[in-house]
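Handout, section B. The chain below has 242 residues.
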Amino acid sequence: MTQKSDNMVDPVVFYLNKVKKKRASEKNSSSSSNGLRDLLNLCGFGYWVQGFRCFPWLALNFHMANNMNMNPSTLQLVQNFGNLPMVAKPLYGILSDALYIGGAHRLPYIAIGVLLQILSWGSMASIPVASEVLPILMACVLFSNLGAGITEVSKDALVAEYGQKNKINGLQSYAFMALAAGGVLGNCLGGFFLLKTRQPKFMFLIFASLLSLQLVLSLTTKEESLGLPHALKYHESVSSSI
């Protein structure tokens, strides 16, 4: 009789364990949905801004050709020189994989890349020397594309890592749709602004403002809310596997 009573499960304990498991599952599902929402907001707007880069580039080409009276060879030189940072995209990916900043390895690089773009386009919009002296202009274009390359690689890695971890298909399609929408809107609005205003510096300022919103969004989003591995947890898992 005693053995039978020992093997019996206390209904109160059973009910409490069931409630704890239910609350834990609800908490995990809530955090997962919040992380997905943060990712969609961050990467959706980020890819849209990435596609919208054609908006200030239309203004820059117009400025160099009409206001600075550059010949086609010099214009092509500036464009090709500015694209040099894009060649090093694999290096940015390796750097973000290996080097954690503040315990995170995606969002800090997105913020750094966006900040470089803000400084570049903001300087060309507000500082006359930056948009009129060719060497300084080339430096601004170089740093702008450097920031864009870092941001693009970090966003691509963030989307791929989150989708693989949570087994969510279609995140890349969502990102490319936002990218395409930004490109279409940027080309249409860029042509409209140039026809109506002919003020490329004002277009630089508009794009710098959009980048500022992206910077705020990337700084206010925590990488832990996305469920990505923290630096300490990552090193612990690596050391335990070794």
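Note. The chain is about 85% helix and 0% strand. Compare this with the example in section A.
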